[in-house]
Amino acid sequence: xxxxxxxxxxxxxxxxxxxxxxxxxxxxxxxxxxxxxxxxxxxxxxxxxxxxxxxxxxxxxxxxxxxxxxxxxxxxxxxxxxxxxxxxxxxxxxxxxxxxxxxxxxxxxxxxxxxxxxxxxxx
Length: 123
Known about the structure:
This protein is mainly β and 123 residues long. Helices cover 0% and strands 49% of the residues. The strands form two sheets. Strands 2, 4, 5, 6, 9, 10 and 11 form a seven-stranded mixed β-sheet that branches. A four-stranded antiparallel β-sheet has the order 1-3-8-7, with no helix packed on it. The relative contact order is 0.32.
């Protein structure tokens, strides 16, 4: 499975962005999906995850209420809608396909990773 993430960019604090991640094959619909991010000088951290059918979602406390994960299996695409962005959201955002039907907070549960897309939030 190849994953391609896009939609990052430069935005002012309080603004919004929507990230997209397109998977290369239809079996994407059997996998949980996740978003992680890595800020400069920091370790990669969990952001959000979604189950194979979109019925179950997880969020990091730092983004809960501001970010929304969703998916469209017909388009092999998972989205991350990011609202009320803060400078501390600045990072490279990576999408990942889980080994199972449900995503999780642990990066070790993900078998495939996209190349990342940079989000920069100015104050």
